[in-house]
Amino acid sequence: MKTRSQRMALSATGIFVALLFFFPTYWMLTTALKKPGDILSTEYDLIPFSATLDNFTTAITKPGFTTFLTNSLIVTLGAVACALVAGLLAAVPLARMRFSGRRGFVLLVLVAQLAPLEALFVPMYLIMRDANLLDTLPSLLLVYMAFTLPFTIWTLRGFVKGIPIELEEAAMVDGCGRWGVFRRVTLPLLGPGLVATSVFGFVTAWNEFLYALVFMRDQSKQTLPVWLSSFRTAFGTDWGGIMAASVIYALPALVFFMLVQRKLVAGTTAGAVKG
Amino acid sequence: MMLALSGCAGSGGTGQAAPPAGPRTLTVWLMNGSAPDKLTDQLHKEFQESHKDVTVKYEVQQWNGIQDKLTTALAGNDAPDIIEIGNTQAPKFAKAGALVDLTAEASDFNKDQWLTSLKDSGSWDGKQYAVPFYAANRLVLYRKDMFEQAGITAPPTSRQDWLDAITKLRAKFGSDPDFQALYLPGQNWYTLLSFIYDEGGDIAKRDGTKFTASLDTPQAKAGLEFYKQLQEASGTKAPKDTDEQTPEQAGIYGQGKVAMMIALPWELATAAKGNPDLTAKSSAFPIPSKKAGTTAPVFQGGSNLAIPAKSQDQDLAKEYLKLMTSAKYQSQFAGAGMIPGTSTDVAALEKDPVTAAMAKASSNGRAVPATPGWATIEAGQNPLKDMLTAYLTGAKSIDAATADANSALNKAFAG
Amino acid sequence: MSAPTVNPLLPAEAPPRAARPQRRFTAQRATPYLMLAPAVVILVALLGWPALQVLGISFRRLDLGELIRGEIVWVGFDNYREVLSDPEFWIIGLRTVLFTGACVVATIGLGLGIAVLMRHLDAPVRVALQIALVLAWATPIIATTTVFQWIFDQQYGILNKTLVALGFDGFAGYSWFTSGVSTLSVIGLLILWQAVPFIAFTLYAGLLGASKDLYEAASIDGATPLQAFRAVSWPALRPLLTMVTFLSVLWDFKVFTQIWALKQGGPDGESTTLPVLLYLKGISGSHFGVASAVAVLMLLILVGVTWRYMRLLVRSQETEL
């Protein structure tokens, strides 16, 4: 058991690390709250003295914001969901079953992650064009799913392997079928793993710029990263606007994490009960 | 990148099939922040009224990543019909055969009144591939009130005047540690170009379609030396290793402690966002020349309009271009504070002292070398910026700095 | 130990009498393939096929002109010769490998530390830390890079201002970007800031997977925290750790946006890495053939760097069941 002072020291370290990681976000937030003239100030402005919500108003009222937000959500959530399903389907046999050809599959998954994605965008563009998918949200959904899939498979495979096989065998003995074992034992224990991978997929898809830019020519199909770049024009950059937009932009990822966070806890308790 | 395999060869020659009957769509790509919405709304309405079967599909593009987007769009068989391209990009796409040769129709687009710098940048190998759209050039924004207090009665009209004004300003306000007589970051290469042109030099010498870098000439070196002299005299605190956008110079001018900055006219509005008094307190003068009484030649940035070779309806696109380059719409650019590309009517610019200063220098506007290599430099690493930083910080001698930049440029020109 | 070989293409042609057990057997054998099918289709169609095309292009001259005219010009190994004969390539390659190495070591070290820390923190502090991490992770790259630029700005940056306020007057107007090394260090911090949250969360999830009861049992048995960690956490962490190391190598090697946004590979090309070179050759130079050659070489370097690990992985796949 930990002593009181150990606890204090741990908490202090935790708070310090949290502050370090929070600082750039904090800086983004305060910049978003600053008046245009205060962004480049020689004053020592660690804590902003006067704040305004103007930048947020500008950002939200910029034409198309809700459309872009919706597009981003559809593409991202769709890609995450599809990647999780396909990834989990592939991860279970990889971790638990014997079959020939797994060596080849493992190699495929590994090598798929090596390719520099920036180099693939022209062939990808052509595939989507030939499939008549340009200017449609599914084209991005597919691409983002493909980007996150190798990672998803790989991570989930690790998590499936991490589940003691005895638990599953015990459940099998208790009369659960394969599916029952999966649903009652494997899936709950996979909670944290599913959360980690889905947050990863979410952030990757949510931030992707190049493919969104090249695939989507119709403005009504654009996503938020492209919207964000519209704050930079030939006439200069609206930095306060960019920062406010970035805060808004980061919110869904945060909400998503908060939603899955409960799952993470649930997964833990399930693990503790069953363990 | 496997266009060839995907069978999109076929189209792309000059021989166009008859325009398809029935409703037609004209896809127009303009850049974010270029033509005012009022202008495009009116233009598209008028065009659609005179072409009842046509719908104009207007798509605004972002500068960020535009090269990727143009590359894929111009190579595919689904190209837009009209594109706006930065004035440094045209030769690259023209050389590759991505743009329609407009030499024969040039007079339809008000050829006689074209802005020289944009005309140059839209041509390749003696042919015209892009039509001027609009441009802007830099000027010196200054604080009238500070000039007055420092006893400067008239805006400088020669380099010497300029340096004298800086001396007076520093004498008057130098006690304030935050004061800067002129804000000049190390990598404002557009300004450097002005000084080099003023010395009679240029970035490169042209021979047909071949360009040879000429930064190692005495004229170019003299321009670089003046840049250093000016920077040292000004007492600027601007970093030597960034350009005017990082940090954004308008924001610094907006702090109210800077007496001058070399900027585009609309940067004043950006600066005044946080400090509304600045608009009334500021004015502008053209970048002074070595020779008293004249203005220095300036680099002119801007855009051209072009028709992609893979446009499905090039004749319609030409009609659109004709309307867009007509005096009626071009005058609106002047009204919006930009130099129109196909009209010499800049009366609207004369009303405001800041844009008037831009218009005054604009007749002496120049473009960067019209070579495909320049697009590579613009979208990649700019040797002029490295040259400036290396020389200003003393990392390299003037001979070494210019020689290195020269060979880097030649490498880019070679493709 | 070798798994029994199963041919997925073998049709279920069973003698009628043994129909039932046989069919069941085949269905079971087909299960793994059916489960893998969606993933395989996506990977092959959307990553494998484009990657093969890039390989093909690396043997062609494909500039903007060829691209638009739809010409196919095979040039053999010319692109590779061009890239490899440029001494710059070797400098950039070495720089990229070193940069990747430094980033990976720092990310994994910090990520592991934070994961273990989270395991031992009380709920409120842990949640605060998790929120800070998620925010760092979720912030769009364009905003993060801009914020870092501001923080490290020579005149107006809060870092220099803070250092001066703390009495280090030498940092007034100090430039953090004068050399490639210092520029890459700032970029490294930026990458660290964005990458650590993911690593920390993954490892933390792995730690949670290791049963808490076991952990407490170990500490009741009088094991020191370190012993408990080695006995209980380590076995759960090890596969995850090797995996995130592998992934970090891949990601950090391929970082482009942050490097480009901060200094475009400058000063004087000193922070140019292979992905930046790829961009310069491809997007800005429109030499797609050469760029594809760079991409293929990058892939080969990555394979070289991770070879041992990949072999281990593929092998362990056979045995570790």
UniProtKB/TrEMBL annotation, chain A:
Domain ABC transmembrane type-1 residues, every copy: 69-260
Pfam families the UniProt entry points to: BPD_transp_1
Species of provenance: Actinokineospora xionganensis
UniProt-listed PROSITE patterns: ABC_TM1
Keyword Transmembrane: yes
Transmembrane segments: 9-29, 73-92, 104-128, 140-160, 181-206, 239-260
InterPro entries named in the record: BP-dep_ABC_trans_perm (IPR050901), MetI-like (IPR000515), MetI-like_sf (IPR035906)
Family membership: Belongs to the binding-protein-dependent transport system permease family.
Topology within the bilayer: Multi-pass membrane protein
Protein name per UniProt: Carbohydrate ABC transporter permease
Main location: membrane
Keywords annotated in UniProt: Cell membrane, Membrane, Transmembrane, Transmembrane helix, Transport
Intracellular or extracellular location(s): Cell membrane
From TrEMBL, chain C:
Low complexity composition-biased segments: 8-21
Signal sequence bounds: none
Subcellular location as annotated: Cell membrane
Transmembrane segments: 33-52, 89-117, 129-152, 184-207, 288-307
Highest taxon listed in the record's lineage: Bacteria
Gene3D superfamilies xrefs: MetI-like
Name assigned to this protein: Sugar ABC transporter permease
Organism: Actinokineospora xionganensis
